[in-house]
Amino acid sequence: MIRRVSALFLLFPILSFAAAPAWKIVPTESHLTFTATQNGAPANGEFKKFSGDIQFDPDQLNSSSVKIVIDIGSVYDSYNQLADTLKTTDWFNLKVFPQAIFQSKKISKIGDKAYQAEGMLTIRDKTLPVTLTFNQQEYSSTKAVMKGKTVIKRTAFGVGQGEWADTKAIKDDVQIDFIVSAIK
């Protein structure tokens, strides 16, 4: 009996450092949108396809991580004018850079059901630090829903070149909003 209890105490450190659980994105319930400002008015769009490797547990943030891969070709707007333009060489250059990738380095709790993920975002082969803030909308043993946002500088990633590099007509700040619904 003493050996069994001793064995359990030896296993306890291993069990406490277990990896956070893996989650699978539910595409039909998840959204990745952006809002830029052109001539003082909002210009909205969405990426219809993105995938991810998500390990998350609010009680195991040290072993939690997120990697999101965005299919740039899935960019969409209700008129398709914006989406078609964004696929060109001056903007995302879809043929050369078909994906954007966010990889977290650290996830921290910043409030009640509020978190931030510090990481690196790669767009057009430029990788820069980005911090996402997100709130836990739903969390159970089988389903999680997170809603968040960040703001990036488009020109830092080379998005908008040539005549579009000027930020007078199209502002540099782009807000990115997301809802990620995932299941175990």
Write the layout of secondary structure elements.
Elements lengths: L1 H15 L5 E4 L5 E8 L2 E7 L2 E6 L9 E7 L3 E2 L4 H6 L12 E13 L2 E10 L2 E14 L3 E11 L19 E11 L1
Antiparallel strand pairs: 1-4, 1-11, 2-3, 2-11, 3-6, 4-5, 5-7, 7-8, 8-9, 9-10, 10-11
How would you describe this structure to a colleague?
It is a single chain. The chain has 184 residues and is mostly beta strands. It has a single domain (19-183), classed as Lipocalin (Beta Barrel), CATH 2.40.128. The protein is 11% helix and 51% strand. The chain contains two helices and eleven strands, in the order αββββββαβββββ. The protein has an eight-stranded antiparallel beta barrel with strand order 1-4-5-7-8-9-10-11. The protein is elongated. The two termini are 36 Å apart.
Keywords for this structure?
184 residues, mainly beta, Lipocalin, 11 strands
Summarize the structure.
The protein is mostly beta strands and 184 residues long. The chain has a single domain (19-183), classed as Lipid/polyisoprenoid-binding, YceI-like (Lipocalin).
